[in-house]
Amino acid sequence: MITWRSLFKRFLSDPVAIGAGIVLLLLVLMAVFAPLLAPQNPYDLMQIDIMDSELPPSWKDDGDARFLLGTDAQGRGVLSTIMYGTGISLLIGIGAVVVQAILGVTLGLIAGYKGGWIDAFLMRLADIQMSLSTLMIAIIVLAIFQAAFDANVYADYAIVMLIVIIGVAEWPKFARTVRSSVLGEKNKEYVDAARVIGLPARKVMWGHILPNTLTPVLVISTIQVAEAIMTEAALSFLGLGMPVDRPSLGSLIRSGFEFVFSGQYWITLYPALVLIALVLALNLLGDWMRDVLNPKLRRGDD
């Protein structure tokens, strides 16, 4: 079994993992401390002046020293909106994965341990869910939600809606992963010993089997955060995600897309670069964790 010490040692020996970790750490810190670091609060109307709209980055001839990366059509500093928008994207991504994990781990654990018709029913349900596109489900639900409520209500519940929709749509990936691990664990001696001493099925599943199935869950969680962020960005780009006054990286890209061909490239370019860096860092770390925590690959290295 790999220890935290050996895991950290392997991390320090992999330059790609180190680079991805540094990028992710910087982006997370930037998002967490955005209220302290951002030169402007893009949610505070008192700090926004429409006369500052569409200013180029500060190093351009017409740039303003107050706005390092320029401003958008509303006069908000692009750097400030990126800082706040990264936080919203991360919040939605992590929140959606928490929902996925709760549903997927619970149902996968039950399916793998109980077997029989319960397993068959839950896995057929997972098959049906996986046959439907997450983006298609989200578009339908969010379009109905937008049509049923006014813009203010939608803005208040947009983050919760995105977390729940993306989370519910992706639970089968966790369920299948946990189920396959449970099938390999439930007939081992320590599980038989737990049954012999009279522990109820609930305690056997959650107290003994689950801790030994968390390694693949940790790996898939990292990758799923990246997928959830990309899904939210796609929905926001289509106008079904975060509202303009509470921008995520996806809605920032959308808000400046119409200005790309008129010369104001910075409104879309810099949020897009941050989104690419965030998703790439998460995927690289997920791939590294999969390789390190995979017992077969570790034996090959040794």
Automatic annotation (TrEMBL):
One GO process term, biological-process aspect: transmembrane transport
Membrane topology classification: Multi-pass membrane protein
Protein name: Probable dipeptide ABC transporter, permease protein (DppC)
Ranges of residues in domain ABC transmembrane type-1: 86-286
Keyword Transmembrane on entry: yes
Residue stretches spanning the membrane: 12-37, 88-113, 125-148, 154-171, 264-286
Main localization (coarse): membrane
Family: Belongs to the binding-protein-dependent transport system permease family.
UniProtKB keywords: Cell membrane, Membrane, Transmembrane, Transmembrane helix, Transport
Pfam family, any one: BPD_transp_1
